[in-house]
Amino acid sequence: MAGEEAAAGAGAGAGAGQLGAEGKEPGGGGGGAEGQQCVFCRIARREEPGTALLPCQYEDLVCFRDIRPGAPHHYLVVPVEHMGNCKTLKSEHIPIVKRMMEVGKSVLQRNNFNDLNDIRMGFHWPPFCSISHLHLHVLAPASQLGFLSRLIYRINSYWFITAEQLIERLQTENAAS
After folding, report:
1. Is the pTM of this model over 0.85?
2. Torsions phi, psi of 2, nearest 5?
3. Taking the C-alpha atoms of 53, 128, 93 and 91 in order, what is their torsion angle to the nearest 10 degrees?
4. Burial profile 75-87: b = 16 or more Cβ within 10 angstroms, e = fewer
5. pLDDT score recorded for residue 32
6. If both were cysteines, with which of 80, 105, 152, 161 could 44 make a disulfide (CB 3.0 to 4.6 Å apart)?
7. Is 135 assigned a catalytic role?
């Protein structure tokens, strides 16, 4: 949320579009009006020269530093194709969430952070996200989050869900249907 607000100020107009199949907004994948306005779509297309992309092992994901970091290591992992927020996901999206987590752990390790027990990875739960393009926050060390960051990225809150909690929720919804 912290970096999203700054990115939103950079011209993101994404957010209010209707979601279609697969949790994607019309014009997703970087085309159409939504993809043209969404700052994360522009970053994924390498149209934002001020945002350096970090190495990523998957072609359908990008990773970059949060523009307003809440921890010494704060990265965002984002699908290249425009997808709605985490609340729009279904059980078929579990593999992409798991790959996003893999990318987050890999970028931490490439940046010499190896204590994977001291990290926080998760998503802001709507309506508490200012950019509707799915993105995973990767923060480390979690033990060094400042006061405000501890609130913004608070586990078991109404506004933030860990990646593990999201996967569990998606699995539970699948079992119920």
Report:
1. no
2. -60, -50
3. 160
4. bbbbbbbbbbbbb
5. 52
6. 80
7. yes
